[in-house]
Amino acid sequence: MVTLFLICQLLSPEKVGTYISNMTKASRMRNMDSLQFYYRELRKAATPPGRNFLKTYANGLAIFLMITSDSLYAKEQYIDSAIYFMEECTKLNPDFSDAWAVLGSLYGMKAIKNLTQLAYWGKKSNDAFQKAKSLDTQNPRTYYLEGISLFFRPKAVGGGINKAQKNFKKALELYLKEKNPLSWGYLECKAFLGFSYEKANMKEEALKIYDEILKEDPDYEWVKRARKNLTN
């Protein structure tokens, strides 16, 4: 495992990317002990955020992955903490598309948690996604995370499964072209595409996607359960 000390000393995108890869693998395995370890270590390294946007981003991403991996962490205190680090990251590097994309997703979570402020947080979410696109039209994580937002958003307010699927498919195309050491989310995006097929009663398409994912990562816990439920 790449140590956080080494990463914070070198601060190269490649080293931080390796750390992010370890975190996303732990997330897919639902290995919360590992994610909690990363969270604690990154808090020590990035609180206060300091001048380096990469470790600030990695800290926020660690919390984001905890939130999306286990409902126990899908609480406002964690969402607010992740927002803090991502907003700090955009202050340190306003042109970093990934941070804006994750903020779009986090603001969407705030909208769900605060229905009386739905319009406020919904606009902030949309604005963050648009900012991410304006900075990098080829960033797959923007389309992937926006796709999740569209998936859970009612059709009456611009969401829906069909729109979400278009986003997921576009993101997957971009992932295959991407050469970014900080890349993450390819298998997770593919899993959401499979889930969208499942919700659209496209069972065969969903099973095909799940099988493809499990060939690449046999330890992806959510996909293993989804496939099992679909075949029972």
Summarize the structure.
With 232 residues, the protein is an all-alpha fold. It has 12 helices and no strands.
Defining key terms:
232 residues; TPR repeat; TPR_rpt; TPR-like_helical_dom_sf; mainly alpha
Would you write up a description of this structure?
The protein is mostly helical and 232 residues long. It has a domain at 1-94. The protein contains 12 helices and no strands. Helix 5 (76-92) runs antiparallel to helix 6, helix 9 (161-177) runs antiparallel to helix 10 and helix 11 packs antiparallel against helix 12 (221-231). Mean pLDDT is 90; it is low at 1-10 and 46-50.
Strand proportion, as a percent range, falls in under 5%
C-alpha end-to-end distance:
38 Å
Helix content: over 70%
- Summarize the main sheet: none
> Count of DSSP helices?
12
Q: What is the strand tally? A: 0
Tell the overall outline. globular
List the quaternary state of the chains. Answer: single chain
The succession of helices and strands, N to C, reads: HHHHHHHHHHHH
What do the pLDDT scores average to?
A: 90
* CA-atom Rg in angstroms: 17 Å
Low-confidence stretches: 1-10, 46-50
Secondary structure class reads mainly alpha
Keywords: TPR repeat
InterPro entries: TPR-like_helical_dom_sf (IPR011990), TPR_rpt (IPR019734)
TPR repeats: 187-220
Protein name: Tetratricopeptide repeat protein
